[in-house]
Amino acid sequence: MSVRNITTMSGFLLTGFSDNHELQILHALLFLVTYLLGSAGNFTIITITTLDPQLQSPMYYFLKHLSLLDLSSLSVTVPQSIANSLAGSGYISYTQCMLQVFFFAAFAWGEMAILTVMSYDRYVAICFPLHYEVIVCPRNCRLAVTVVWLSSGISGTLYIAAIFSIRFCRAKIIHQFFCDVPQLLKLSCSNDYLVVLGVAGFLSALALACFVGIVISYVHIFSTVFRVPSAEGRSKVFSTCLPPLFVVSLFLSTGSCAYLNPTSDSPTVLDLLFSVFYTVLPPALNPVIYSLRNESIKTGVRKLLLSSEVTG
């Protein structure tokens, strides 16, 4: 595709990971396997936390919504990237690009919000066990989840409204495998991008507040845990608390590195890997992370498999 065509076309050109067709096929296969495994894992967690009567506590209610967000987040960027690699074309229409921006921003914020809620749930459960059922009652759980999804929609709307105010003056080449906001800002005219930066700054401040809340929750949790005399009790607490801490650390550290670094016209392999770490890996790995040390989840999966075998 010529530079002239790129400049005048209505959509954008995603450069992806490589121009080499064999490497594009390899990238498509790796993404396909990741997408299928991540989707299957998240769908399994959604299913067992919905059907298993033993997994109806607030912790698993929040985990179900985290899996819903993860499943949705994976579906925003990965299938389009697979299709582009298989077709050997990085073209994405303007509408598809804007939808990616909206849903990616919405689900990224939703993940941050639900992880904050989950950390507070663990904090109350471990530090105030006698008051847990009053504080984390079904009504408050539903309210928290409603706020998570509503704030997700508001986050996506703010981003997309800001992006719509941008006029694109440069060749519409995005050096990414999806419509990344920092890359879009590079294509804007003069100071058009200032509105987007304002939205990004506002949401970043909220994300930082969430992160501080998560850190404070876990400081209190671990200080309480280390006073527990039973090694088995400490192990049980760690099995439910360490997975969310790992997830939020991976998500925030890689996302921050990607967004704080200045965007380049020739991104390195490391830059692209960072984008995979905060867009693809967290939602794909969450089911593994949450089930690895959680006996209730593993028991629920076994019951689901046994019931499907009996039905079959």
From TrEMBL:
InterPro entries: GPCR_Rhodpsn (IPR000276), GPCR_Rhodpsn_7TM (IPR017452), Olfact_rcpt (IPR000725), Olfactory_GPCR (IPR050516). Keywords: Cell membrane, G-protein coupled receptor, Membrane, Olfaction, Receptor, Sensory transduction, Transducer, Transmembrane, Transmembrane helix. SUPFAM superfamilies: Family A G protein-coupled receptor-like. Its main location: membrane. The chain crosses the membrane at residues 25-48, 98-120, 141-166, 193-221, 242-261, 273-292. It is a multi-pass membrane protein. The keyword GTP-binding does not apply. Residues 41-290 form the G-protein coupled receptors family 1 profile domain. It is found in: Cell membrane. Belongs to the G-protein coupled receptor 1 family. This is Olfactory receptor. It comes from Microtus ochrogaster. The gene is LOC101994027.
